Description:
Blueprint: E1 5-15, H1 18-28, E2 32-39, E3 42-51, E4 60-65, E5 78-85, H2 91-100, E6 109-111, E7 114-120, E8 126-130, E9 154-162, H3 166-175, E10 178-184, E11 187-192, E12 200-205, E13 219-226, H4 229-241, E14 250-251, E15 255-261, E16 267-275, H5 294-297, H6 300-306
Parallel strand pairs: 1-4, 5-8, 9-12, 13-16
Antiparallel strand pairs: 1-13, 2-3, 3-4, 5-9, 6-7, 7-8, 10-11, 11-12, 14-15, 15-16
The chain binds zinc ion.
Amino acid sequence: MNNKVLGLHHITAIANLAQRNFDFYTRVLGLRMVKKTVNFDDPGTYHFYYGDEKGNAGTILTFFPWEGIGKGRNGAGMATEIAYSIPKDSIDFWMDRFGQNNVLTGESVERFGEIYYPFLDPDGLNLSLVLSKGNDERTGWSTNEVSKDHATKGFHNSTLTLRELDPTAKVLTELLDYKHVGQEGNRFRFINENIDTANIIDILIDENSSRGINTAGTNHHIAFRVKNDEDQMELREKIMSSGLQVTPQIDRDYFHSLYFREPGGVLFEIATENPGFDVDEPLLELGSSLKLPKQYEGQRSAIEKVLPKLT
Ligand code: ZN
């Protein structure tokens, strides 16, 4: 059955101040803003997309910056950590850079033979840098301050915190083409071998964890990648046959989406590679102007008035 999942497509998180979020991800972390649009369900809020040059699947971290929203809390039923793959020999550069920019960092930790260097974004979102054991040949976006020799390459893995392993493991292995490949303590690793990068999900089991609070500094959902609509619709049938509730296909302008809540409580999305971020502005200009879905174009001036100005 051809319904290949190709690792991660994007991850969406919640932030507080738009400007602070924009400065951190574009300047400190050196990602490209590949799209500046609004939350399609709440057009008074931005939706920012950060990634590599083209916003390739597996590199895209997106945010809803809700100004004034309180700080959230990680807990069960959430994606609680995102790790970015970095080039060999770049960790000293990043540690210096984080020091100069007052980024909060934690103790490095070894997992499955790879060293993770944790840090927090300004809202307290858990991120890490990691040198992949595999061959990560992706080239990150470079800026005046972050050259391609240091630029992050995209996602390496994401961690889900759950109370119970089996129901979610079953979704990963039976529906999303992941294989269980290892366990260290209460951390279980799953790999999707249809693709070489952004293809790892860790499940961290914490039976006593309370539910997370999904506001600033926490992840809202994670999206898995499929090639096209045909693969997506086949996968939709398979998800429904497993007894899970799944939405119809929704047009997100830059990809097409389905959503379902996996049994552990994490919101999963299935997103297509098509049509991509250059569908409404040229590659060279991605992210440089506010793009609105057509249903809101008529309200552009009212929307621009309520969105915080970015400098
Ligand atoms: Zn999404």
